[in-house]
Amino acid sequence: FKDNGSFEPIEYTYDDNGNMLTDSNKSLSISKYNHLNLPEQLNLNPPQHYYEISYLYSAAGQKLHKATHIDFTPATTTDYVGSFIYQDGQSQSILTPEGRVVVDGSNYEYQYFLKDHLGNTRITFNGRRTIIQEDSYYPYGMNMAGLSHESGVDLPNKYLYNGKELQDDFGLGWYDYGARFYDAQLGRWHVPDPLQQFHSSYNYAGNNPINNIDPSGMYSYNWNTGEYNDSDGNVVSWSEVQSNNYEEPEKQKEKEKDEKEKIAIDPGHGDHNDKNSQVDPGAVNGNDYEKDIALNISEAVKIELAAKGYIIIMTRTGDVLNAGTKLQWRIDKASGAAIFVSIHTNSVSTSSANGFSVCYKSTDANSKSLAQYIQDQNTLFKNRGISERSNLYVLNKFTGTAVLVEVGFISNASDLNIMKSNTSEIGKQIATGIINYLSK
């Protein structure tokens, strides 16, 4: 924070709606708001330069597009399409419930966010357990530069304080909460609270950022008790909050997710359990292991399903040490899911055998139907059809709908090449089969 306006009698100005128009400390002016009091055009005018940030929203206020200009020349564009983010027209990243997938041409790197109790991202790391970014915060969310670190070579993670996206173009330093933008340097919103929760329309979380969080910029609550408070500190019910004809976007998303089926994705092998002395690689062909191929395809399935709002339970996200009772630990991990999809490769001594097949839970019509929906999506491998299996533990011990996908033969050179070079497409086809089954 730089008090560039310290010698001005008025450093902030507002329109008749209470929306901030200028901030002398940032040399900032906001020339246009939309009908939801969301800023559409911001101008930052430090000496010798002219900077501009413009936003486009849906009718409901969802951010769709951001563009920046330097000295009236277009600089960058960012497009938001659901969980997908495009930078200058190129796919940049995909947000997931656990973090993000960074896209670099045809390469995809899975990255994970380690958060604290307030939803603040503290550590960003990849599947190789390499730390990409560390972030620490002052109570109101301003970054503590001395305790934060970026690798310098990876795409910076901007989803930080409360998990919200930092708008750091030209030093703006605001966080996008959905209904409002928030200035963590001041601990204040730049537009009034639509629901007037507190005596001041601009303070963040009732000036209590240690106990309270505001998921959407509309209404804060105590993270520890889950209770909502009015401006006098009195506890109010969520029904009283809803009486304002408003429901927080985050809660609406969770409600929509709860209405969808929970799906367990089980990457085969890759575990050290009570029956083996080391991590089970599954079938092996040279330096290629079934456990790794199954995990990569499972991650691709998860991305597709998560983008559609489904809650995904991954039985493993890497090698699992001391997993517990063989196979049963997978069933335990999948607890709460309605659907169980185990991903494997096939293998036989004859290298000519090839093709894609799906096994389903014995004497279960729903499992048979799911298997057929998945099988019908296959366009990359020979079609080996579906089969009922009464001897597969993970299928018949799972209480709900269960299938096991044999993606291809790791023992066949052609199938192996397809599995390694078309991971995303295989994941998309399996996910589409699952979605079609659930939509029938």
What does the model show?
The chain is built from eight helices and 30 strands. A hairpin with a 5-residue loop joins strand 1 (12-14) and strand 2 (20-23). It is α+β, with helices and mostly antiparallel strands. The termini are far apart.
Main traits of this protein?
alpha+beta, 440 residues, 14-stranded antiparallel β-sheet
Provide a concise account of the structure shown.
With 440 residues, the chain is an alpha+beta fold.
Could you describe the largest sheet, including whether it forms a barrel? 14 strands, antiparallel
Q: Main sheet: which strands, in order across?
A: 1-2-3-4-5-6-7-8-9-10-11-12-13-14
**Radius of gyration from the alpha-carbon trace, in angstroms:** 25 Å
Number of strands: 30
Distance between the termini: 55 Å
Q: Which word captures the global form? A: elongated
Low-confidence segments, ≥5 residues, pLDDT <50? 245-250, 255-259
What's the tally of helices?
A: 8
- Share of helical residues: 10-25%
Mean of residue pLDDT values: 90
Quote the beta fraction. 25-35%
Overall structural class, as computed from helix and strand content, comes to alpha+beta
Layout of strands and helices, then pairs:
Blueprint: E1 12-14, E2 20-23, E3 28-33, E4 39-44, E5 51-57, E6 63-70, E7 73-81, E8 84-87, E9 90-96, E10 99-104, E11 107-115, E12 121-126, E13 131-134, E14 149-150, E15 165-167, E16 174-176, E17 181-183, E18 188-189, E19 212-213, E20 221-222, E21 228-229, E22 235-236, H1 238-242, H2 249-259, E23 262-267, E24 284-285, E25 288-289, H3 290-307, E26 311-314, H4 328-333, E27 339-346, E28 356-361, H5 365-377, E29 383-389, H6 393-396, E30 401-409, H7 413-421, H8 423-438
Parallel strand pairs: 23-26, 23-27, 27-30, 28-29
Antiparallel strand pairs: 1-2, 2-3, 3-4, 4-5, 5-6, 6-7, 7-8, 8-9, 9-10, 10-11, 11-12, 12-13, 13-14, 15-16, 16-17, 17-18, 19-20, 21-22, 24-25, 28-30
Helix pairs in contact: 3-8, 5-8
